[in-house]
Request: fold
Amino acid sequence: MDQGTWLVKTGLAQMLKGGVIMDVVDADQAKIAEDAGACAVMALERVPSDIRKDGGVARMSDPSMIEAIKKAVTIPVMAKARIGHFVEAQILQSLGIDYIDESEVLTPADESNHIWKHDFTIPFVCGCRNLGEALRRIGEGAAMIRTKGEAGTGNIVEAVRHARSVLGEINKIQSMNESELMAIARDMQAPFDLVEQVHKTGTLPVVNFAAGGIATPADAALMMQIGVEGVFVGSGIFKSDNPALMANAIVKATTNYENPDILAEVSRGLGDAMPGLDVRTMPIEEQLAQRGW
Amino acid sequence: MSVIGVLALQGDFREHANVLRTTGCEAKEIRLPEQLDSIDGLIIPGGESTTIVQLMDSFGFINRVKQLARGGMPIWGTCAGMIVLAGKLMGDRPEPLGLIDIEVERNAFGRQIDSFETMISVPVLGSEPFKGVFIRAPIITLIGSGVEIIATIDNQQVVAAKQNNILVTSFHPELTDDPRFHEYFSTMISGVGN
Reply:
């Protein structure tokens, strides 16, 4: 019996596909998310829009809060560790979390090195802005990838930019001649064997979700039509007028993302979505997606 | 050529469809109940069972799938799909469809850290062992008299079973490159045709 194998780590991400992973800050929110059809929850102390507002250093959540959420639901529970903070990751593994998000939403602990994720039995998901960044994270052992987007803004523009960038670069590599792969691996600063694999298969070697800025059912369906395999919704649910309704509408939109009649139906009467922020007027030091490399 | 529908509400439905195509079946992703009319068999894939049941309920699948099952259509549930088809669950959610006389315990091996792969013996597939990939997997804790045991781990935990036209596995043949389970399911479909 083999535990923590690559197949078992990437396999759980396969099971999450077509689903919505929701940020929750307590057991009550976790139950609302599960009842609304979330395929997993992300346990954290503050949603990204509050982290952004409060400033200061954002760290791993209190283990007792994570455990209360684990007890409240039967779906997988994820939690965030700071970029490079492998001890926070060790603690999360010891708590029996199902997936660790090495996340730019928290304040990075190491500006040079991300966590060496192969050392862990439980799987990791990491953010990326382009294919090179995705392949570097997979090289370190990430078993699932998500776009970074710009968390806590309710603005989809960065998630679209990053997803288009990753998927466009995959198409480009797939259509290249083998003799060009070393040069593109150098330009993208990506591990050569993974570039070669993308060339052969035309896909990322792991599941790819969208995250950061998804605030409506239409946003979720947009990301799915662009070509991601599921979505993370952070502040978009519990900062909206009616979280249970919004959560369920986003779940349905993520399933029937190509059916405009259903999208119209689920978009009705949801009340206000979370308040949005314009990323173009945001100083670069406030942009969370810039964290990590 | 038989057409096998894969319930595509959430989970790893694309992996099932890919394996089916290598076995010479036509695979069709099913997102709305009316799409069930044109298929010969149905797979309910791995995923999150609470999510899948919730979506089956909101899009009006539950009674239609029950009718098809009672009419003899072969249906195979893997992992979450097994939970969906079960007669009874330990624990209070989700509410299963009750199409096979088994009781199922969700997440029976523990959390993701306890997920594993292991070679298991599946006599109906021949003597060659089959790679079982168990991800937060359920097990069958009780079986009714009409249910056939298809596979166990160490002759103890029942991890695959069949009752007439309903097949369930707590592991994921769709994540391996071994098509034998999908071939076995397609013989259940051609058996109905005969």
